[in-house]
Amino acid sequence: MKQSEKLDLILKGLYDYKDTGKYHSLIGVCNAINIPLALEEWNRLAHRLKDDGYVRTIFNYDDCMLQLTTYGIDYCEQDSYTYSGNAIITNTYNINVENSSNINIVSQSTDVKITLETKNEADKKIELLLKKLSELTEIDNDLKTDIFDCVKDIQNKLRQNEKVPKYSLKGLIDLTSKVASLSSLGVGIAQLFGA
Predict the structure, then answer these.
(1) 18-32 burial by CB neighbour count: b if 16+ within 10 A, else e?
(2) Average of pLDDT values for 14-25?
(3) Topology of domain 3-91, per CATH?
(4) Are 164 and 193 in contact (CB under 8 A)?
């Protein structure tokens, strides 16, 4: 993921808290919206946002507390690092799935609606994933059990017409990314729910 996208996503995450008057952990914001950070990258990103005048900062040993300035709020509503001239708050960004190439998921999507068609498509993909999983013999039994449990949890939420938690979808992506033949199905299922 490009630095400009990370800066936009951090600002977008902070924008949600613009009226609280509180400082928020940079690493906490990044973890909440699944922004991958390299060691000590948080420091560079925090300094960039501070130097550009978009945030107030309190630096700690291993994190930085951030608060949007009025300039930061204006910037989020009018511009972005990644898409110049387009407001950060209306943009969508892609996050690379860890340990996989050429697979992206949409972060912070507001356009996803779960319809009967989406539910039926998810059911089909889940059944296919479970079938492929049962046919696999070369993977670790613990991993197989973890994937099975995660998929069954998602399937149960669907059957009960409950919202599928984001942590379940992230878990599905993380687990299936370890098995090449299942990774695209895992991401496909998660994408149906806007993960």
Answers:
(1) beeeebbbbbebbee
(2) 88
(3) Arc Repressor Mutant, subunit A (1.10.10)
(4) yes
